[in-house]
Write a sequence for this structure.
């Protein structure tokens, strides 16, 4: 992105800061015009993304950096929109391996990537330049479609599996 | 509250052989181990029925789901009836996104969870 991020947050990979990141994301999304369901979904997606970095990227180390950046990105027809990037300095993995798992296999863990992809409009994993770290780009444009709102009125998700699918 | 589940209340239910596990706050990666330990402790007593009362839970992420999936598997293995109840719509939504709402017995209220 050429334009500097409107918000940049650097946090340590300590799960105790997840709640603060969620609340910040939800609050900003609300100010950008998203409805309550969408705000919840954005917060969930970011939560799950951070969890996956902590769990799989940093193997639960609690002193490593994670960067969260946000840009407003309204749609051409005036709907709210935003772009969020989550970056880390963890080991790099093949972005094509970042898939949600088969939900028919009922077991604990591995749901994060599925949840992120389910609640966001566009999800891109990429390797950072320089050979260290991953970048996750999350795009949300417009409010929740009525059909989805009817069956899901949620708040937050998981990046449980960027580096591996297990929680 | 901004830092995860503050407490997990465990008590005997209003019917014989029933235990109620009631977490409060947000169930995320920072506190799901505490939630897991609480359920595991109750399962070790091998009750007939465990009701997980989610009325006090504002938010749950996939770590909470994972805890409950593990609890359900353990419950099935020990023939304990595990029932979730009183979850708000945001918590229910994550079960639906993960398509786990059909895997669990979910009751609207604690009272109904005794019969579900």
């Amino acid at each position: 992105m050429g334009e500097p991020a409107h918000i940049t947050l650097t946090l340590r990979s300590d799960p105790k800061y997840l709640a603060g990141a969620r609340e910040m994301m939800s609050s900003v999304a609300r100010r950008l015009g998203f409805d309550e369901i969408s705000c919840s979904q954005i917060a969930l997606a970011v939560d799950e993304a951070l969890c996956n970095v902590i769990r799989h990227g940093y193997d639960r180390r609690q002193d490593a950096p994670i960067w969260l950046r946000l840009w407003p990105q309204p749609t051409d027809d005036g709907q709210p929109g935003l772009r969020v990037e989550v970056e880390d300095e963890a080991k790099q993995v093949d972005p094509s391996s970042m898939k949600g798992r088969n939900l028919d296999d009922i077991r604990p863990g591995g749901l994060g990537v599925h949840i992120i992809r389910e609640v966001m409009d566009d999800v891109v994993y990429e390797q950072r330049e320089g050979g260290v770290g991953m970048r996750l780009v999350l795009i949300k444009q417009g409010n929740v479609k009525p059909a989805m709102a009817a069956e899901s009125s949620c708040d937050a998700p998981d990046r449980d599996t960027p580096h591996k699918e297990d929680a | 509250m901004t830092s995860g589940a503050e407490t997990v209340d465990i008590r005997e239910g209003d019917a014989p052989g029933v235990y109620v596990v009631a977490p409060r706050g947000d169930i995320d990666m920072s506190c799901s181990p505490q939630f897991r330990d609480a359920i595991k402790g109750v399962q070790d007593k091998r009750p007939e029925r465990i009701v997980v009362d989610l009325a006090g839970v504002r938010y749950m992420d996939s770590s909470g789901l994972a805890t409950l999936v593990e609890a359900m598997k353990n419950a099935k293995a020990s023939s304990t009836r595990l029932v979730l109840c009183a979850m708000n719509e945001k918590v229910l939504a994550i079960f639906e996104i993960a398509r786990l709402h059909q895997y669990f017995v979910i009751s609207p209220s604690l009272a109904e969870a005794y019969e579900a």
Q: What stands out?
A: Residues 150-167 of chain A have pLDDT under 50 and may be disordered. The longest strand of chain A covers residues 65-72. DSSP finds four helices and five strands in chain A. The helical segments of chain A are 18-31, 36-57, 112-119, 146-151.
